[in-house]
Amino acid sequence: MYVFNSKLFKLIINNIFNTLYKIFFYRIIFYTMFQPTTLTDISKTKISKLIKPITLNDATKDFIKLQLIANDFASISSRCRLGNDIVDYFTFTERLNTKGKYDINFYEFITNIEEFKKKKFIANMLKYYEDVKNKNKTKNNYVVLKEVYNICISAINIFRPLVAMEIYAKYNPSSILDFTCGWGGRLVGACALNIPNYIGIDINTNLINPYLEMKTFFKDISETNVDIFFESAVTFDYSKITYDMVLTSPPYYFLEKYSNNENYSSKVEMKNNFYIPVILNTYKHLKIGGHYCLNINKEIYEDICVPLLGIATDIMPLKKSKRQNNYQEFIYIWYKQDESKK
Description:
Layout: H1 6-34, H2 41-51, H3 56-68, H4 84-95, H5 106-111, H6 113-116, H7 120-133, H8 141-152, H9 161-171, E1 175-178, H10 185-192, E2 197-201, H11 208-219, E3 225-229, E4 245-248, H12 267-284, E5 291-296, H13 298-309, E6 314-317, E7 330-335
Helix pairs in contact: 3-4, 7-8, 9-10, 12-13
């Protein structure tokens, strides 16, 4: 006959409890030590302002200077940053959420910096800044980390307002469509020249507040009517808007990952599900006599745009400071004479 052993039962229960406790405890330790630390939106804003301490007054002065140069673009250096402060004031915080190499953004980079210091080239670059480039400590730590991130991982660039203004001045549009409006450089350029209408589309809903703030900023200092739609550029109904110019800079193949954007598993998928439908649809609704301008790389131009739209009518080099490998980008421009491309 079986006799219940209470001591043995308690021992078994205690062992089970201790085992579960250890599992729970070690999981906490693991997630604390090895999972990426996340920053609040407030912390991100503070960090971005330490990197670029631009005030509203700075942005206003920058815009006034941008308006004053009008059509005098020939004398502007490719290194001129006029207009950039306006873009950075409104959208720089969100720009740092963009993921580059290693599928990591700047905020993740700094919260996991000890892990990244194990990579020799990053450790060497940080050492170079400490011993040489920032030996006098003129730059704060966040500025240094951002510059190292730019060099070692990804520099998330903007489309400079001056470049947009040069194109607008050349082709004189009355209504601009920017179907991947991004950080706002092309909007700033349109407002500086008082282009009658600017229509921006972007899928990144993190930019809703920055664009609302930009619209408020421009309301009393520019004559441009601004409409922004936070929708997919692929499914947007372009028949409900009117435009005689497209100027945009769509994402390249897997170069950068933006917040809330679609993730494509291959170049073929991105080509078939994004580039082809959006290019055909936006070109279809462009007014006759309008200009279709894309800042894209050579691969996308040759593989997608030429088969769809033919050889570009005009090609403009994108004015900017060249990268170390002298990489050059272009803006490809098509003049729409008829309805043959649909």
